[in-house]
Every structure is written in C-alpha cells, then in structure tokens.
Write the structure tokens for this entry.
Amino acid sequence: MKVLIVGASGTLGRAVAAELGERHEIVTAGRSGGDLRVDLRDSESIEAMYRELGKLDAVVCAAGKVPFAPLAELTEAKYVEGLQDKLLGQVRLVQLGVDSLHDGGSFTLITGILTEQPILAGACASMVNGAVEGYVRGAAIELPRGIRINVVSPSVLSEAMASYGPYFRGFEPVSAARAALAFSRSVEGRETGKIYKVW
C-alpha cells in the first residue's frame, strides 16, 4: 500500500513509519519535516499536498498540538488554538482527502488517554481528544466507497516521560513502538469507527 504519514518526524510518527515501512510504501509530511510540507491549520496546504501525492491507500495522522494550561488560564484564544490544530486539522485531513483514497482505503487519526483520564492543566486536550473520537464514530458510518476511519489513543509515551512525567504521575507509559502497532491494526485491518486504546 501507499501510506501517507503526517507527523512522521515526531517520536510516535517515526515509530509508525518504521512499523508500516516494513511492508508498505511510506510518504511523510509535516509542518517542519518529511517528504512534503503541510500545515493542518491551512486547507490550501492540505489540498496542495494531496494534489502532489495522487492516489493513496491510507492516511495516518500522528500530529496535532493542544495547549496545556491551568483551567483558569485557558483563554478562548488558547481553546481555538487546540481546536484549529488537533481537532479541525485532522477533520480537514479527512474531509479533503476522501477523493485521494482508493476504494477501501483508510484514515487513522490520533487522540490520547486524556480523553478519559484527565490531568491537571489538560482540559483543552481532553476536550479536543473527545471531539476527535466523536467525529471518527460519526464519519465512519458515512464515508463512501468502503473507506474506513479509526483513531489510536495511546497513553503517555515512555520516550516522553523525561519531559511530561511530572504531569502523568501514576500513569503507565507505553513505548512508541507499542503504540505504532495499533496504527498497523487500523491500516491493515478491516474495522471502522474504532478507538484503539494503547494503555
């Protein structure tokens, strides 16, 4: 298969590229690295990427930023930042990419454990993750031509604990390689509308 991975220069994205790259042709894209540049906040950027790539079998997203701040400091502008990037960025990736997928192709998006297990200063992340998962469930019953859509929801990555450990006391981290297996399950399987929890 020809698989596009958005966010392949990050810790998780590199692991997903390594996992899927054993069996498939991988094309990478990102805001600051990859074979192609793309900004998920910009519809024209996404459209240009799809035009350049031609037909695909799968689109994987391992990208999306949200602000972390105490609830009292989460201004409307900060919420909009998270909504525009991780939520609407992934929605744009799907909405604008449907015509680029072969029949039976797939989208795999990214959320995280904070959907169900919140942390201090993580209200925006919990909100955005929950919205992405709701979108995936809704889109799964309407995508045409047998196109599938799923989402991977990992716990905090063990590779990120040096930076994020203080925020995730008591959480069991998972390796990026383990989380990457769920992306293979989505891309190479037949399920749709599923939330693959890697906790």
The mean pLDDT is 97. Residues 7 and 62 are 5 Å apart (CA to CA). Helices lie at 11-21, 43-53, 76-95, 123-140, 161-164, 176-188. Strands lie at 2-6, 25-30, 36-37, 56-61, 101-110, 148-154, 195-198.
